[in-house]
């Protein structure tokens, strides 16, 4: 009851103690999971939505405090629930994701979907490893089950083959739900960022899962999300909300794409995939205002992923491919260099102002960033 209290300060005290109370294969985790999942939803009062639709009371914290609670306290309790009832945990989250993806759009749905994605993402390290055991030999599966029982006191008689199969199925179910009906996730910068974080965390699973086409779906979601992020969320309301967020849809989409490309570069070293990646890279330079919305770290992430793909090409294609990748950056650098010359001349005039010096520093920073990419 205390864990479901509307105040984050009150429920946080209880939730922080839960990991030591939840024992392996305990039904306590099954009873607690719905409560913890509800606590992962951003309090509607913090995002300007009515309280009545979600039945939430005053949470007593600001947006940053809530994110801190979720990342450092709630996530630990979610991991404990997962380790106690692995398959139930994933089935519950997959059902929620599927339901929210298929639901009629409302202002609250993206935040509920975001919470479900957060819950699955919080157990990504263990869940992806368990899911990939579906490809392992019986001996490797038995060794994994034994190691798990020694570390956590789990039942050594668990059917690890069936368990890993269920993990794989539920993670596939999550991804396919997002791929079929991405609107709920992409209509809001917060849910979009969390979806991309989910994809990035499970990139290793995508690269090795036996499910056909799953890797391509993850890559397509991350690339589309990146393009959508810097072409859609430009209004003042979205920008203000994104300033409050600790995660960025641009950064998470770039990281997800880098992770997927880096783990399976040969898979994307094909003409069609290279064409899509190339056009996406050029769009970063051709779209107005893209440099203001996308920082150098995000562009570095995408560039590093593409470079891994280019390295998987036959050696005789390296020179041409790298030149094509570098061309937009070099062209941009030429333009920026000219602007730097003009800005420097302006600062030397007798009538120069602080704005002229600010312009010069801005241009020099952009120049440094482009050189950094090269």
Give your account of this protein's structure.
The chain has helices spanning 8-21, 27-39, 63-84, 86-102, 109-122, 124-132, 138-152, 160-180, 183-186, 189-201, 203-208, 214-232, 236-244, 249-263, 265-268, 271-286, 290-293, 296-311, 318-347, 354-373. Among the domains are: 1-83; 332-374. The protein is globular, with a radius of gyration of 23 Å. Helix content is 75%, strand content 0%. The protein is mainly α and 374 residues long. The model has no long low-confidence stretch (mean pLDDT 86). The protein contains 20 helices and no strands. The relative contact order is 0.07.
Major pleated sheet: none
Number of helices: 20
Radius of gyration: 23 Å
Strand content: under 5%
Name the structural class: mainly alpha
Helix-strand pattern: HHHHHHHHHHHHHHHHHHHH
Uncertain residue ranges:
none
Helical percent range? over 70%
Taking the alpha carbons of the first and last residues, their distance comes to 56 Å
Globular, elongated, flat, extended or rod-shaped: what is the shape? globular
Count of strand segments: 0
- The overall average pLDDT, rounded, is 86
């Amino acid at each position: 009851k205390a864990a479901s209290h509307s105040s984050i300060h009150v429920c946080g005290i209880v939730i922080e103690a839960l990991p030591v109370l939840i024992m392996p294969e305990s039904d306590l985790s099954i009873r607690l999971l719905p409560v913890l999942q509800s606590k992962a939803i951003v309090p509607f009062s913090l995002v300007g939505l009515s309280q009545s639709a979600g039945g939430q009371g005053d949470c007593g914290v600001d947006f940053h405090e809530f994110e801190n609670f979720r990342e450092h306290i709630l996530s630990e309790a979610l991991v404990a629930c997962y380790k106690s009832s692995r398959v139930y945990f994933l089935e519950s989250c997959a059902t929620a994701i599927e339901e929210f993806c298929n639901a009629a759009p409302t202002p609250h749905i993206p935040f509920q979907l975001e919470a479900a994605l957060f819950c699955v993402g919080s157990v990504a390290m263990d869940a992806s490893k368990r899911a990939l055991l579906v490809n392992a030999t019986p001996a490797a599966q038995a060794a994994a089950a034994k190691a798990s029982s020694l570390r956590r006191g789990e039942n050594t008689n668990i059917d690890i083959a069936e368990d890993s199969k269920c993990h794989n199925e539920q993670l596939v179910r999550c991804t396919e739900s997002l791929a079929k009906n991405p609107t709920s996730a992409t209509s809001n910068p917060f849910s979009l960022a969390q979806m991309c974080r989910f994809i990035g965390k499970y990139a290793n699973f995508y690269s090795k899962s036996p499910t056909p086409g799953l890797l391509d779906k993850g890559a397509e979601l991350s690339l589309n999300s990146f393009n959508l992020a810097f072409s859609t969320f430009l209004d003042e309301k979205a920008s203000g909300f994104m300033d409050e967020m600790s995660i960025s849809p641009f950064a998470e989409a770039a990281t997800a794409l880098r992770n997927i490309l880096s783990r399976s570069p040969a898979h994307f070293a094909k003409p069609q995939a290279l064409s899509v990646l190339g056009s996406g890279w050029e769009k970063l330079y051709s779209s107005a205002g893209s440099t203001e919305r996308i920082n150098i770290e995000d562009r570095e992430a995408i560039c590093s992923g593409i470079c891994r793909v280019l390295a998987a090409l036959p050696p005789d294609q390296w020179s041409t491919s790298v030149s094509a990748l570098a061309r937009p950056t070099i062209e941009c650098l030429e333009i920026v260099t000219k602007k730097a010359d003009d800005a420097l001349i302006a600062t030397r005039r007798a009538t120069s102002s602080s704005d002229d010096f600010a312009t010069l520093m801005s241009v020099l920073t952009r120049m440094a960033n482009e050189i950094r990419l090269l």
